[in-house]
Amino acid sequence: MDKQELYTRAKEAIVDADEEKALRIIEEAKKDNFDLLELLLSGFGAGNDEIGDRFDVGRLSLPELIYAAEVMKNVTNTILQYLNEDEERYPIQEKKGTVILATVAGDVHDIGKGIVASTLRNAGFEVIDLGCEVPVEVILEKAKEHNADIIGTSALLTSTMSEQKRLEKLLTERGEKDSFITMVGGAPCTPRWAKKIGAGGYSEDAVDAVRVALELIKEKNKSKE
Ligand code: B12
Question: N or C: which end of the chain has fewer CB within 10 A?
Fold first, then answer.
């Protein structure tokens, strides 16, 4: 099957909130040995963008958005489960470090964070996923408890991005800025935003998140020498 055709069908399945079709596409892709992570991000992900845009311009109601998002969440979980079982493509790695991940307070969007958790785990990080709507104070407390190397926060709403800034401020106030590497992500975040608030890193997607995390850990270990 043609990759582009597969991605178009994946996008349509999310836009139509057709879970049966979506799961069928995953099985077909698996059988034909397509990269399931890429299918998730570029195929089904494009459907997610489309429903977001339709919601934005009033072509989709909130219940419709919720319904389609539920399909996307199940699709994501199915693919992540397959990826976690795929030891050939993702062999067990030596431990690279510990990451605390959370979606910030006031924000329930957790699909993207879940994907980032999975790619980081497959790359050898121990990931403690605190879920969504997590206050920065709790994030910091957990980071200390687990002696984390990296704190990654996800924000999908322009109104909740300020929590990422609050985390940096809290770290500075407590004199703990050098204790943790911070990474920010979520659709409204940009490298500029990360720089502005003083976060250690930013990445646009779950694949790049691994590259950035590995780089930052390497830098941290070098500065310890
Ligand atoms: C699905 C969805 C929902 C679902 C969420 C379900 C869930 N469990 O996550 C539901 C229906 C619940 C929902 C609710 C709402 N939503 Co909504 N939602 C979306 C939608 C369509 C997709 C988000 C998504 O899952 N994307 C797919 C994932 C894979 O992408 P991602 O999250 O960006 O993650 C990737 C990267 O950003 C990065 N990444 C993510 N996190 C992190 C973290 C780190 C550390 C790193 C390094 C990288 C990283 O890697 C990920 C994988 O590649 C977006 C539109 C869009 N295109 O973003 C709107 C959107 C985010 N929602 C929006 C709105 C307005 C809302 C509501 C306020 C609607 C309402 N009136 O109630 C509520 C808010 C509820 C709340 N308090 O949080 C707006 C936000 C507008 C704004 N500028 O703030 C958007 C942009 C839609 C729009 N165009 O209007 N939503």
Answer: C
Å from CA of 52 to ligand 1 middle: 8
Provide the number of structural domains found in the chain. Answer: 2
Query: DSSP assignment, residue 181?
Result: E
CATH of the domain at 117: 3.40.50.280
Which run of H or of E encompasses 103? Answer: strand 97-103
113 within ligand 1 shell (Cβ under 6 A)? yes
> Which CATH number characterizes residue 78's domain?
1.10.1240.10
| Domain span including residue 57 | 3-85
Atom of ligand 1 nearest to the CA of 159: 84
Whether residue 129 has its Cβ less than 6 Å from ligand 1: no
